[in-house]
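Appendix B. Raw example, untouched.
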Amino acid sequence: MSLWSLFQAASQVGGEVLGDGAVVPSSLSLDTRTLQPGACFVALRAERDGHDFTPQAVEKGAGALLVDHPLDSDCPQLVVPDTLAALQRWGQTRLAAVRPKFVFGVTGSVGKTSTKDLLAAAVAGWKTPGNRNNTLGVPEALATLPEGLGSAVLELGMSTPGEIRRLTEIAPLDAGLITMVGTAHIEYFAQGQVGIAEAKGELVAGLVRGGIWAHPAADKWCCWIAEQPWARHAEALPVGDGQLFGWEAAESLGAAGGSFRLRTPAGLIPVRIQLQGEHQIRNAALAAALAIRLGYDPEQVSLGLGMVVPEPGRGRLHGLPGGGCLLDETYNASPDSILACARALLQLPGGETVAVLGSMRELGAEAPRIHRETGAALKALGLSRLWAYGDFAGDYAEGFGLRSVAFPDFKALRDDVAGLSAIPPGARILVKGSRFWRAERAVDWLLAH
């Protein structure tokens, strides 16, 4: 079975085809800025109406349009009552038609994408590209899922309750992995940490009966999930101290990554990864334990893990003149992820340890306190200096104390004489922040200067 033509997609999602229904879209696209020629552009109604962008999509080479009313265009169209429902149905039915032997789901407050990459490498599987992890991105990716796959690894993200439940309806899971349950998006959960744990637990609730899910044995909220009545249909696989699966002899290899020995019922397996930090060793151990528990060859699992390289914004390491380095962790930020990355920075060779942090988002009324506590925790870890910017930069700096500076925005951070230009030569630099603050601009400036 090849990719579906517009006629075949219509038979799955309903609707009417206008124009050449034999055209086969190479992919689906929700954004004209990233649309590739041959893709089917999906016109969603959100804050902005995607139908207004169909001329640009056609101009960029769209092969078809998914719309909710006929348009005056020569481009083939699939006209449906609701483009969001059709998008999700397209991904759902495509997965059902070409379903691999194993469909994995990965979620967690920290490390979803890198763990998805590690697990996909461990099982030699297909994975959702980039950060397509929500109720739009997952079906967008699944709509052109190749046939003949042995496994597919899906990243499942959420910011509000019910999102992961919907994703598991679109893509029922055979196995899953929760990296940890932290405080990200707590602004949207009236029940606080319990609410976040329930939302992450929707992955477990969505597993097929007899499915398996891995989690850190030391994460109390993952253990809480395992005890809930709605999780009893699935097997929990705790990974860590005192468990059948765990890791030991973890060692930083500096810029080369890290190594550890995976403990399994059949013995110890040496693993070497190219990712930085103890948290990545934990993520690799979780991925390896789940893969081996499901019957994948341990040697191939270890080899696969060693092939994963950091993506931009997710742990990519840059060497700097004077023996310094820059750890690019700019994709997003939460208290847990900032501290994990700071620990990784401390394991690298170089001079002073410096953090450049944009403020965090979606923390609700507790945001000032959380930023102060994060600043204090960075100082307690041993970081020597902090440059902070954004709406809670002052709270970061207050918590960190001496040798910290705060700026209202990136322009001030960049242009002030006490800003980025004041970072000492040879420093080890961590750059991180909420997507809102576009911390990658600091990376670009530091690499250029």
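End of appendix B.
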